[in-house]
Amino acid sequence: MKHIFSAFLRDEPRVLTRVTSLFARRGYNIDSLSVGATEQRGISRMTFIADAPAEMANQIQRQLEKLEDVIRVVNHAVEKFVDRELVLLKVKITPETRLEVRMIAEDFRARNVDVGSQSYVFEVTGDEGKITAFIEQMRPFGIIETMRTGRVALSRGSNADIASQVYEGSSSALEHPLAGMAAD
User: Fold this and answer.
1) Three-class SS of 159-178
2) Are 19 and 73 in contact (CB under 8 A)?
3) What is the mean pLDDT of each run of 10 residues along the chain (184 residues)?
4) What is the CATH number of domain 2-77?
5) CATH number of this structure's domain 82-148, picked from the four choices 3.30.70.20, 3.30.70.1150, 1.10.10.10, 3.30.2170.10
6) CA 62/CA 8 separation, integer angstroms
7) Going by C-beta distance under 8 Å and a sequence separation of 6 or more, which residues neighbour residue 162?
8) For the whole model, what pTM was predicted?
């Protein structure tokens, strides 16, 4: 099962190296990794996907939480979440395929970010299924190049409103994941 984790980290040199080396030492594979600043100065958020059984996912979380610069780890499997990723895709075009390629892109709400005489570059944002489907639809035309970001995720705010979506009695969906914690 794929687990999506968000780790809140102190924004310090070598923190990413320490986190990823933990995975390497334990033989865990990271399927997707994305790191960026948060709304709190000095704290970054790392979102990663690990394909692991539940017990291994719990072990990953516990080991990450032991690292000095890790403030908190959230396993998004606990509550409903929303996730997105972005792809930039350069596809070949000819005068005969130009319109069809644009129509397919429109169906996926892809944004055309570069128009060339022999290629288009599209930007698509969505869940993993949408991104994969878009790539597969463009494959017959000839994909020149692709760049796919790692997935990012947040717990849904609606978890707090729907009793069936609340895990173990209460929801933290309307609280910041670091609420009540000191960043030191």
Assistant:
1) HHCCHHHCCCCCCCCCCCCC
2) no
3) 90 89 84 90 91 86 92 85 93 97 98 97 96 98 95 76 48 63 56
4) 3.30.70.260
5) 3.30.70.1150
6) 14
7) none
8) 0.75
Residue labelled with tokens 């017990």: 55
Q: Which residue has the tokens 């072990």?
A: 59
For 18-34, letters b (16+ CB in 10 Å) and e give ebeebbeeeebebebbb
Residues found in the chain = 184
Token pair for 150: 């790692």
131: CB partners within 8 A, 6+ apart: 85, 86, 87, 124, 148
